[in-house]
Amino acid sequence: MTTQVIGRKMYLAGDWVKRDRIIEVRDPQDNSIIDTVPAASAEDMFQCIEEAKEGAKIAATMPVHERMRIVNAAADYIEANKEKYARTIAKEGSKTIREATTEVSRCIRTLRISAEEARRIHGETIPFDQMPGSENRVGYYYRFPIGIIGAITPFNDPLNLVAHKVGPAIASGNAIIVKPATVTPLSALLLAEAFVQAGLPPKVLSVITGYGSEIGDVLVTHPAIRMISFTGGLEVGEDIARKAGLKKISMELGSNSPVIVLEDADLEKAVESTVSGAFWAAGQNCLGVQRIYIQESIMESFQKSFVERTNRYRIGDKQSELTDMGPLITEKEAIRVENIVNEAIEKGAVLLTGGERKGAFYSPTVLTNVPEDCTISKEEIFGPVVLFYPTYDLDAAIQQSNDVNYGLQAGIFTKDIEKAHQAIAKMDVGGIMINDSSDYRIDAMPFGGVKKSGLGHEGVKFTIQEMTEPKVVCFKLSTY
């Protein structure tokens, strides 16, 4: 079936606008053009920021009940058009229709949580009389919006990760400019459509489509932008941090997530959970299971069960409800994964299953005996590849798990609460899932990592904390 190319407009401070230069949006499954979006210029971004200055004033004066109404109404609109949103995600990205439908449901929840958290932006009274000489002073602090937020979002969750920035920004009274991934801009534009339908005042939100090399630096370096919220790769994150200047930075930069499976674990549940965790969204998941440390006594049985389950994974048409895994986001990315796997095999790694590429599709792949000097051992693969390592005991597994420069989330399978607490205390990660894989997350929890996995935290309540500042108020009374 041929998709009609409409030519989408971007949303610039309340106006849907076209530009002569365009970006082709392609379906990674067959590389067909599904739509186009404007290729914004640096001048477009400067204009957007100027408009957002007024938008920030409008947003800051919106009463809380109005912010709540608008964010909930946007969620209502998405819920009423759920199939359109899911089909768009599955068309422009890597996700299957089942994975895309799950993402739409999460986006709706993210927005509803954002609306609820708007009423919980609290301050506290301050006992100023704790200091001698201040007996006649009383006061408090409250939180106020910081102004304009610049959001740079990735391709792998093109709707919900945008909602994780837009929902909290509007709930907390800020203006926000979104620069979505060039390969998946349509879902972000649909999110803007939902907020327009919800009655969001113009200039509070913009979604600007374009190349990062042309508009990204303007957004990152402009002094009117008070915070950059970025989700993406480490190299780009480090570049943003160098350029941003004196502003808040929140970054989620990926991981190389470990899972430990001890001999007392429920083997069947551990296999099912880690297979899903490794290959969800073709492994293009910052929380995806990449390294599994398996106690030696169960290594053979775990390995056999995992490979058998992996070989039942159905690869193919993303729009089919029967498909478990679609392609990577581009053929270039699939070739990158193929090269990294081949490097490991050439250095002595053993291929248990997978390792085959056809266009942008790369089969679910399992490796063991992977040498430590391989790229895949230390870096984020961001593809459907998982590594097995035998481990003697929990102490050894924790040491091996920590031996990378990332630390977003981890998992451990055990029935021993003492061992679970040992892992909780000693694993260098921002989150640890007990009897679950590393990729479990709810949208209300704090989400962030240590080491090179990022700065700050997402999760709606915690994002709002990042997007607001405390202001202290103190009254000096003449009599008290």
TrEMBL record:
Q: Which key words tag this protein in UniProt?
A: Oxidoreductase
Q: Where is the Aldehyde dehydrogenase domain?
A: 16-473
Work out whether the entry's keyword set contains Calcium: no
Do you know which InterPro entries this protein is assigned to? Answer: Ald_DH/histidinol_DH, Ald_DH_C, Ald_DH_N, Aldehyde_DH_dom, ALDH-related_metabolic_enz
Q: Does the keyword Membrane apply?
A: no
Q: Which Gene3D superfamilies match?
A: Aldehyde Dehydrogenase, Chain A, domain 1, Aldehyde Dehydrogenase, Chain A, domain 2
One Pfam match: Aldedh
Annotated coiled-coil segments of the chain: none
Alphabetical list of CDD domains matching this protein: ALDH_y4uC
The domain of life is Bacteria
Q: Which family does it belong to?
A: Belongs to the aldehyde dehydrogenase family.
**UniProt-recorded name of the protein:** Aldehyde dehydrogenase family protein
